[in-house]
Amino acid sequence: MHGFKSIAHVALKVKDLDRSLDFYVNKLGFDEMMRLDKPDGSPGVWLVYLRITDDQYLELFPEGQGDRAPGRDATAINHMCLGVDDIDKVIADLDKAGIPLTVQKKMGADNNWQCWIDDPDGNRIEIMQLMPDSFQLEAIKRLKAKAA
Amino acid sequence: MSIFKSLGHIALRVNDLDASVAFYNAIGFPEVLRLLNKRGDAWIVYHRVSDDVFIELFPGGEGDPSPPEKTGLMHLCLTVEDIDAAEKKLGAAGIQLMRPRSPGRGVDGNRGMWIADPDGNQIEIMEMAPDCIQYQAVRAVEAGGKPHVLSTS
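^ Those are the sequences you sent over. The predicted structure of the assembly is below.
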């Protein structure tokens, strides 16, 4: 082990900062924490921090080149996943916010409930309710039993 | 408040699955689970970051890696308790920093460094200081205050 504790943030390069802030703040409900001006003093925002949890953030960097995030088969960071406790409630909240699901709720091959949305740049976001009998949690149990 | 609980995982589309599995094992995130497709080939490999955070590797990446200037997911950040110890352990595992670590702290009050994975995805490594600007901003927003705007120039 190398002392890594967790994923602390994910950074997005966005085409239109206002459009992305409307999506992540007004619709998904992540609070804006702060924004930084550019280190070289040139005009415009360098990045905006949004709070997922007290120690997990999204960073939005404006002035993305290109209109659309890489497609699902491109070599790249492919998608991010947000965890939820009650996927049905979240789907109802997304509907109220006017965000369509790109993949409807289904049971994944890993025994978890999932559905998918796109952000305004086409970044794919998986929404997952981790279930007690999921492959992931069983794998973690095996690791712990081995360590004990 | 948000309708979401936390980040659950980050998925990477990779060019060379074996190289990426070896890299993520080497930085201390062991492979814990592998799902196979109907042909018996790897579909998704899961590496454990913490008990409820994973990195998923999907083989079959097409093309060169997406550069950070391009619209899309830009980089990941991993936190450590002790960045000096982490740098030594990475060196022992044969993983070089993208550039030598700057002495002192970044504009946000934290100590940081960067590595790249086999596809060139950039990974920031941060030792978060208790009084860093991120924690100050979270405390202010949770207390009902407005988001901070800071100039770094």
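The CA atoms of residues 41 and 47 of chain A lie 13 Å apart. Chain A touches chain B through 80 residues (CB under 8 Å).

Shout if you want it in another format.
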